[in-house]
């Protein structure tokens, strides 16, 4: 039976730790390149709130919203596409080139938009520990 050297075990553990960190690290910011795709979620910095897609109760409809992360009961505090739910789990939330937050289906049809008239290109949306989702202009802050 071969014995694995301590160096090999250490290298393997380091590699596995890096892979786990890459897949387990959550961010709280959405951009045009860092988006949420159903069933992914994002968590606020202090882990007080989550945002992502969900289906309430026995429904198959998909909604994008924000909910408490700290209670045992699933309590939604905001839903973007309440009037226009998605029919499947192909949803994507991203910041568009014009700086608006969008909820899209798999065919890139817009199901909801923030419709900010003075949004700036290269914006981002950040989930705060207050539960607010804030659009930021990267140039002016």
UniProtKB/TrEMBL annotation:
InterPro entries: Bulb-type_lectin_dom, Bulb-type_lectin_dom_sf. It holds the Pfam family B_lectin. Residues 27-141 form the Bulb-type lectin domain. The keyword Disulfide bond applies. Keywords: Disulfide bond, Glycoprotein, Signal. The keyword rRNA-binding does not apply. This is Bulb-type lectin domain-containing protein. Residues 1-26 form the signal peptide. The lineage of its organism: Eukaryota, Viridiplantae, Streptophyta, Embryophyta, Tracheophyta.
């Amino acid at each position: 039976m071969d014995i694995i050297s301590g160096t090999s075990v250490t290298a393997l553990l380091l590699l596995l730790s890096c892979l786990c960190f890459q897949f387990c690290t959550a961010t709280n910011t959405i951009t045009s390149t860092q988006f949420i795709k159903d069933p992914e979620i994002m968590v606020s910095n202090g882990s007080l709130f989550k945002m992502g897609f969900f289906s309430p109760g026995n429904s198959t409809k998909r909604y994008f919203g924000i909910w408490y992360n700290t209670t045992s009961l699933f309590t939604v505090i905001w839903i973007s596409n309440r009037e226009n739910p998605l029919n499947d789990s192909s949803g994507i939330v991203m910041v568009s080139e014009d700086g608006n937050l969008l909820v899209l289906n798999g065919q890139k049809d817009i199901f909801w938009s923030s419709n900010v008239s003075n949004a700036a290109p290269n914006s981002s949306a950040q989930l705060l520990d207050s539960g607010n989702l804030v659009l930021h202009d990267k140039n002016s802050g």
